[in-house]
Amino acid sequence: MDDMGVSIVFPAFNEAENIGTSIRRAVSVMECLERDFEVIVVDDGSSDPTRLIVDEVAAEDVRVRCIRHPRNRGYGAALKTGILAARKELIFFTDADLQFDLGEIDRLLRHSDRYDIIAGYRARRSDHLGRRANAWAWGRLVGLLFDLEVRDIDCAFKVFHRRVFDRVPITSVGAFVNSEILIRARAEGFSLKQLPVAHYPRVAGTQTGANPRVILKAFSELHRLHGELRQLSLAESPPSDAPSRESH
């Protein structure tokens, strides 16, 4: 359904060098697609001029708005803020670091009439070997623990129908948020389509995903969700000494 509006969510932390270009590119793409849209930037307590740049753009375009966290709360918290603020039927999120081609959103949107979630995966990841190895190991771990088959779980290029977030809570404040959303969405029975997307090197700003505190937080949130779902599974399972329902 091409008439569905799209909320574009950019979580951003110290992205002053990239955010203006990201917003302009998003606006240009959506205008070319002739889609109803809005752009939401969640400034997660940046110490650089990220918010000032967004405010300047928003002052000239009512389709753009900025929500600011007074302190840095984490990627997951910023993403949740943007999702909860979204007003359109389709919610798309990506990073503000220009490592994805926003023009490829059209390929995802074409499947929105048949799937609840359309997730991009990086066809060829433009990161150094160590980061790619860590991402592979993380994906394998999440897949094994939660029986989830997703090619690139942390790829920040995804489209969701609003109904997904009406039923899927977000509790992660850190980098585990992508995994949590897909794990909970699978448990709710939502359909998923995966598509390859291009990935480019970051040319400005600083990545924070390899920060030890970010990594430790992700493992902590993984452990918490795994425990939560295990408890739910045990609560829903009949006791081993329950009487058989077979008739005699």
List keywords for this structure.
alpha/beta, 7-stranded mixed sheet, 248 residues
Radius of gyration, Cα only, in angstroms? 19 Å
Output the number of helix runs. 8
- Topology as H/E string? EHEHEHEHEHEHHEH
Main β-sheet, spatial strand arrangement: 3-2-1-4-6-5-7
Indicate the overall shape.
Answer: globular
* Head-to-tail CA distance between termini: 54 Å
State the total count of DSSP E strands.
7
pLDDT averaged over residues: 87
Structure class:
alpha/beta
Low-confidence stretches: 243-248
Helix content: 40-55%
Biggest sheet statistics: 7 strands, mixed
Estimate the strand proportion.
15-25%
Describe this entry's structure for a reader.
With 248 residues, the protein is of the alpha/beta class. Helix content is 41%, strand content 17%. The protein is built from eight helices and seven strands. A seven-stranded mixed sheet has the order 3-2-1-4-6-5-7, sandwiched between helices. Helix 2 links the parallel strand 2 and strand 3. The radius of gyration is 19 Å and the shape is globular.
Concise account of the structure shown:
This protein is α/β, with parallel strands linked by helices. It has 8 helices and 7 strands.
